Amino acid sequence: MEQRSESSILELQPRVARTGWRHSKWLIPVELLLVVLIYVARSKHIIKVSSIPPMILLAWFSLRLRDLRWHDVGLERYRNWKATLGWGLIAGLLLEAFQLFISQPFLVHVLKKAPNLEDYRGLAGNLKMTLLFIALIWILAAFGEEMVYRGYLMNRIADLFNRTQAAWIISLFVVHIVFGLSHFRQGITGVIDEGLAGFLLALLYLRTGRNLAVPIVAHGVQDTIDLILFYLAKYPTL
């Protein structure tokens, strides 16, 4: 399987331009407006459970419209399965340690407020519910959020600015402000902490040559550890 070059974190040269209205970058603001509408629908409880399924549908339609596949934004093995799972596991453990012992304690100290994690309090001692949540986070968070935020939105914003180095930097910051805000239910501490976690996952995405598999594994590992801590009633700020 052909792999992307890893010589640079960012793609410095724009892709070969494709012609036709389906490849016009002026479609991107329309797509971003639809993203905003999905977020509004979620905040108004029109979308009941998660904004990720309609976002994935939008992303899939956008890719198909432009004759692309998920493979084209990085949904493939990183080198091989051993490397994919190994680097994903290591990255997930490091990200979890960073969040538990550095970023979250620092934010709680500065903001004087813990993240609002009340939605997870019911997992304490409840094995069936914890296992259900683990399955859901691998589907909606690990796979879903990585495909939407790193695979779709980062690439579309980079497309808007011709995929230059500056375009990827803009995309990196803009998308992860949005990613943080999507965790508004966790309060200001949770918004900042999750935005930072997403930012680090995005750096991992770029560093692996825009490969989604390693961030998917890392994200799933990190969230699984959180859920186990919730089950054991050992999560520091809950």
Q: Roughly what percent helix?
A: 55-70%
Helix and strand run: HHHHHHH
Which whole number gives the mean pLDDT?
Answer: 92
Rg, Cα atoms, Å? 18 Å
Count of DSSP-assigned helices: 7
Low-confidence stretches: 11-16
How far apart are the termini?
44 Å
> What oligomeric state best describes the polypeptide chains here?
single chain
Label the structural class: mainly alpha
Biggest β-sheet description: none
| Secondary structure: number of strands | 0
Describe the global form: globular
Strand content: under 5%
Can you offer a commentary on this structure?
With 238 residues, the protein is an all-alpha fold. The protein has a domain of 161 residues. Helix content is 64%, strand content 0%. Helix 2 runs parallel beside helix 4. It is globular. About 3% of the residues have low confidence.
Task: Label this structure with key terms.
238 residues, mainly alpha, globular, single chain
List the helices and strands and how they pair.
Layout: H1 27-43, H2 52-65, H3 81-111, H4 127-160, H5 165-181, H6 187-207, H7 213-231
Helix pairs in contact: 1-2, 2-4, 3-6, 3-7, 4-5, 4-7, 5-6, 6-7
Task: Provide a quick synopsis of the model.
With 238 residues, the protein is mainly alpha-helical. The chain has helices at 27-43, 52-65, 81-111, 127-160, 165-181, 187-207, 213-231.
